[in-house]
Design a protein that fits this description.
Helix content: 10-25%
Oligomer: single chain
CATH class: Alpha Beta
Number of domains: 1
Shape: globular
Radius of gyration: 17 Å
Order of helices and strands: EEEHEHEHEHEHEHEEEEEH
Strand order of the largest sheet: 4-1-5-6-13-12-11-8-9
Structural class: alpha/beta
CATH superfamily: Class I glutamine amidotransferase (GATase) domain
Length: 247
């Protein structure tokens, strides 16, 4: 059975929280674990390396890394300062934890798939930068997140001909995906290649690592797709390809 390491989401110490008061909590979103198990893979939540256990030890315990969505990437992680008086501070603690995991997996040549925040984090870990808020910083950007409809906000995606994504799905050009993000890739890391862009504003929505191991990022949330949403790009082919890269 293939073991998929899920990078953790964090609830940081909160003295006002009635349970686990003042403690840091690590968690996974259930849709992500369900996506793994539907394809016969075991999801394992990865702790932050501590004490006698190194990041390499953590990575050695799994076959691949799946970077979950969640909190914003902190501007400090890509050499920027928060805009709008700190309105988008992000989660620097989580960034450092995940960047270590990405670097260790690339060194060990273990496959990586980044989803939403994970797609952005992969770009930052490899030296790229982000728009802290697309509607503020990207002229002409469409609305990519609407809390009222959440994962039922959709837009078209342009898959580039000749891309790995086109090969995986056997189609290029326009498809439809969900959209739940307000940050996005600004400067693409040198070792990443853009494979798909949102329409009509051209934000990078899929990236492929051009080095000697498999790492891929998608801006949408394939794990949130419902059975009745047959008009959306199916999650299965992408996830099966990810699993096929495990040696």
């Amino acid at each position: 059975m293939k073991r998929i390491g899920l990078s953790a989401c964090f609830f940081h110490p909160d003295p006002a929280r009635p349970i686990f008061k003042g403690k840091r909590l690590l968690y996974m979103e259930q849709s992500m674990s369900q996506l793994c198990m539907r394809h016969g893979a075991m999801p394992l939540l990865l702790p932050k390396a501590e004490g006698r256990i190194s990041v390499s030890d953590v990575v050695d315990s799994v076959d691949a890394l799946l970077l979950q969505g969640g909190s914003d990437v902190a501007p400090e992680s890509y050499g920027a300062r928060p805009i709008e008086d700190g309105r988008w501070p992000g989660d620097r603690y989580r960034d450092l934890y995940e960047i270590e995991l990405v670097q260790a997996c690339l060194e060990a040549k273990k496959p990586i798939l980044g989803i939403c925040r994970g797609h952005q984090l992969l770009n930052v870990a490899l030296g790229g930068s982000l728009y802290q808020d697309t509607e503020t910083e990207r002229k002409g950007a469409r609305k990519h997140r609407d809390p009222d409809v959440y994962d039922r906000l959709y837009h078209e995606l342009d898959i580039k001909p000749g891309s790995l994504l086109a090969e995986i799905y056997g189609v290029d050009g326009r498809v439809t995906i969900n959209s739940i993000h307000h940050q996005a890739i600004d400067r693409l890391a040198d070792s990443l290649q853009s494979e798909a862009e949102s329409l009509p504003d051209g934000l990078i929505e899929a990236v492929r690592y051009t080095g000697d191991s498999f790492a891929y990022g998608v801006q949408w949330h394939p794990e949130f797709q419902r059975d009745e949403e047959t008009h959306l790009l199916a999650p299965g082919p992408l996830f099966e390809y990810f699993l096929s890269q495990i040696t």
